[in-house]
Write a structure and sequence with these properties.
CATH architecture: 3-Layer(aba) Sandwich
Mean pLDDT: 90
Number of helices: 4
Radius of gyration: 15 Å
Strand content: 15-25%
C-alpha cells in the first residue's frame, strides 16, 4: 500500500460517506496558510471534510507540528479525519474532534472513529479557515478556466 493508494481510497470515501458532492485530492495551490490537503470534500450545506493520509506514526507526529494543526481555526475542514493503514494510528492518538479511517490490505476503508454526533453536515465541527478553502476552490476553477473547460460546469449532471 502506498500514500497514493490511501489518497485514492480517502477520495472515494469522502464522496460516498461524507455528504460531499465534490472533492479535490492532492491539489497543489498557493494557499496563504500553506495547507495542502490530501483530500478535501465539499457539501451543499457549506460543510467541508478534510482527510489527511498518513502511512506512518512519524509522518503523523510531524503533521501535528504544522501551524494549521496546532491552531485548529487556521486549518481547512469543518470535519477532519486521519486515514492510515489498519492499526497505524489509534483513537487515543488523535487530536480532539478528529476522526479516524483505517484502510486494509484490500484497500477497503472503515471509519473506526467518528467524533461527530449525527450526520456529517449537521454535526458540530471545527471553526475552519474559509479563506483557505476559497483559495483551493478558486485554484481548481482557475485551472478549468485556463484550459477553456469552464463551460463544462454549465452542462447538466446526470
Amino acid at each position: 500500500m502506498t500514500h497514493h493508494d490511501l489518497v485514492e481510497v480517502a477520495y472515494k470515501w469522502v464522496l460516498n460517506n461524507a455528504s460531499c458532492g465534490a472533492a479535490l485530492k492532492e491539489l497543489n495551490t498557493c494557499a496563504s496558510n500553506r495547507e495542502r490537503p490530501d483530500v478535501i470534500g465539499f457539501g451543499s450545506w457549506g460543510h467541508s471534510v478534510l482527510i489527511e493520509c498518513k502511512m506512518s506514526r512519524s509522518d503523523f507526529i510531524a503533521d501535528l507540528k504544522k501551524p494549521f494543526r496546532m491552531c485548529s481555526e487556521l486549518g481547512m475542514g469543518t470535519y477532519r479525519f486521519y486515514c492510515c493503514p489498519n492499526g497505524v494510528l489509534q483513537k487515543e492518538d488523535l487530536p480532539e474532534k478528529w476522526g479516524l479511517i483505517w484502510v486494509d490490505d484490500r484497500l477497503k476503508a472503515e471509519c473506526v472513529y467518528k467524533p461527530y454526533k449525527g450526520y456529517i453536515g449537521y454535526a458540530e465541527g471545527f471553526e475552519k479557515n474559509i479563506k483557505a478553502e476559497h483559495e483551493i476552490m478558486y485554484s481548481a476553477l482557475r485551472r478549468l478556466q485556463s484550459k477553456n473547460l469552464i463551460r463544462e460546469i454549465y452542462e447538466k449532471v446526470n
